[in-house]
Each structure stands twice: as structure tokens, then as C-alpha cells.
Design brief:
85 residues; mainly beta; 2 strands
Length: 85
């Protein structure tokens, strides 16, 4: 139900609306040790504790493609022909 008593049928919401300044985080992000409880009528409740995640996996840097001849400063380079259907 909305604050004015209106039933919001068919609305699925996955978090608070974006409000305030972009750098503002209210409520603050979850951290290890926090407990989250989800309660649904008839179904009951599920309680979970936030645990530390794994360390991020570093991504390799991308490979640079060699420049085509004539594609340097002021050059137009070679243009691929259009794909035929």
C-alpha cells in the first residue's frame, strides 16, 4: 500500500527510489555482518547475514590493433567494402 492507502497492484520494486544527490548513499550500502530480513505475507520470512565477497578479479588490458597504412594523421586509411547480402 502507498502512504495514502492506495494499493499498488502489479508493482515490483527492487530498492529505494533514486533521490537526493548522486554521491549520497542513504541508506548506506550493506557491509559484512549486516542482517537482512525479507518478509512476505503468507510465505513467511527469510533472514540472511551479509558475508565478505571474493576479491575482484583484475581484467587484462586490451590489445591494441595495428593502424592500417595511411590511417595516421591526415590519412584516410583503407575502407572496408560494404557487406553484401
Amino acid at each position: 500500500m502507498d502512504s495514502d492507502g492506495t494499493t499498488l497492484l502489479g508493482l515490483i520494486h527492487s530498492g529505494p527510489p533514486t533521490v537526493g544527490r548522486p554521491s549520497e548513499q542513504v541508506p548506506p550500502p550493506l557491509k559484512p555482518g549486516d542482517t537482512v530480513t525479507l518478509t512476505a505475507d503468507i510465505l513467511g520470512s527469510v533472514r540472511s547475514t551479509v558475508v565478505p565477497g571474493t576479491e575482484p578479479v583484475p581484467l587484462p588490458t586490451g590489445r591494441r590493433r595495428p593502424l592500417l597504412s595511411g590511417s595516421g594523421k591526415g590519412g584516410h586509411g583503407r575502407v572496408r567494402p560494404p557487406l553484401s547480402c
